[in-house]
Design brief:
With 377 residues, this protein is an alpha/beta fold. Helix content is 52%, strand content 14%. It contains 13 helices and 12 strands. It has helices spanning 2-36, 57-65, 87-97, 118-128, 147-154, 174-195, 211-216, 219-222, 229-239, 262-275, 282-302, 306-330, 340-358; strands at residues 44-50, 74-81, 101-106, 133-136, 141-142, 160-165, 167-169, 207-210, 243-247, 254-256, 363-365, 368-370. The longest helix is centred in the N-terminal third of the chain and has 35 residues, at 2-36. It is globular, with a radius of gyration of 21 Å. The protein starts with a helix and ends in a 7-residue tail after the last strand.
């Protein structure tokens, strides 16, 4: 039994070192690359899918339009994804004073089974785009002024096929702060995987790709339908042999709105969890490294070693804290540090109950219900 406890501790320590070293390595790679690249301005298309986003779409589009980037070098493509509210009306008004904004609509008559949901809107937007460099964000996001500049500069390297960057949540409530720390932690872990050439994840609200590489893999028309279209794109671009990178910079870190209810939070994490199955053997390995802490904790209790059991919990808390510190400082989010203790405890408790919710194969998101396999219900 003691051997099992030692093995569990070693497994988690390996995960911790992997995440920490990987994120540091990726930051070093990106920093070195940015120093060697020129400042040539790429022609960019920014695609914003929007489904029932009347309350946030204006702030999003305005933030993109106000980018510190030559106005003749980028276009904004807003795709109204079957909205039933006033999203279209808001977009029409924005179009009147934003010359490089183009507005399109998709409807329920999409016959391709792989293009149901967000994929259909993204694919349509890409087809309407005039440029080879495609940047994505969501309608409930606000991008910083230097976002386009920082992301597009990396594509001056011809080998790069996809670039992602960090996302944090804006909001004043404690639950908002917890979500922001979680997004930053998950981005740091995703960055660590990229650092070692093992894609673990990315988020579609801060993502970019070369159009020619997207078309090379067949686009979303050829990719399996999933509620995690961002991860699917990352994996297929990487498998096609193109370089991918993860940028940690306050100038490219976008802000998204928090989920306000615990039920929406659960739906969000169900979507992420089911989408993570696309990682293949990596998915169970990630679960095993997470379970190692709890197995070590449980076996320590069984042998009556309470201090050792507490030590496992402290190891987990300190491990996540260590991974968080680097991006928090790079993103100048020092004020979030004081929320870390309660946030990290919350993450640990939530991961214990999440499997219960995963027993239900249905996912509800953006007023749509999908099955576990991604098919629309």
């Amino acid at each position: 039994m003691k051997l099992i406890i030692i093995i569990c501790a070693c497994i988690y320590l390996f995960r911790l070192l992997f995440m920490l070293a990987g994120s540091i390595l990726e930051n070093y790679k990106v920093g070195k690359l940015r120093k060697t690249l020129g400042d040539d301005k790429q022609s960019v298309s920014v695609i914003v899918p929007a489904r029932n986003e009347e309350n946030v779409i204006e702030e999003c589009i305005e933030s993109i339009a106000n980018s510190n980037y030559p106005k003749d070098k980028f276009e904004i493509i807003a795709v109204n994804d079957r909205s039933t509210d006033n999203t279209q009306e808001k977009l029409d008004l924005l179009k009147k004073h934003i010359p490089n904004l183009k507005v399109f609509q998709v409807d329920e008559n999409i016959n391709h089974s792989n293009l149901k949901g967000k994929q259909g809107a993204l694919n349509y937007g890409i087809k309407q785009s005039q440029n080879d460099l495609i940047l994505f964000t969501d309608a409930d996001c606000v991008v910083p002024p230097d976002w386009i500049q920082i992301i597009s500069q990396l594509y001056n390297s011809p080998n790069i096929g996809l670039v992602s960057s960090y996302t944090m949540v804006e909001g004043s409530k404690l639950f908002d702060k917890i979500q922001s720390l979680e997004w930053i932690l998950l981005c740091a872990m995703a960055s660590a995987g990229i650092g070692f050439g093992i894609p673990l994840g990315c988020y579609g609200n801060n993502l970019s790709v070369r159009k020619k590489n997207y078309e090379e893999i067949g686009g979303y028309e050829s990719l399996k339908f999933t509620t995690n279209e961002d991860l699917s794109l990352l994996l297929n671009i990487h498998r096609a042999g193109h370089s991918v990178h993860y940028v940690c910079d306050i100038g490219s870190c976008i802000k998204t709105k928090p989920v306000h209810s615990f039920s929406d939070y659960i739906s969000q994490h169900k979507r992420w969890s089911f989408g993570g199955l696309e990682l293949g053997w990596i998915a169970p390995m990630f679960v095993i490294t997470t379970l190692s802490i709890w197995v070590g904790f449980l076996f320590s209790l069984i042998i009556g070693n309470i201090p050792l059991a507490i030590g496992f919990l402290i190891l987990r808390l300190l491990g996540d804290a260590v991974i968080l510190f680097q991006p928090l400082f790079k993103l100048k989010q020092h004020k979030l540090i004081k929320y870390m203790p309660i946030a990290l405890v919350f993450f640990m408790l939530f991961e214990l109950i999440l499997p219960i919710f995963l027993l239900d194969p249905k996912i509800t998101w953006k007023d749509q219900t999908f099955k576990r396999n991604g098919k629309k219900n």
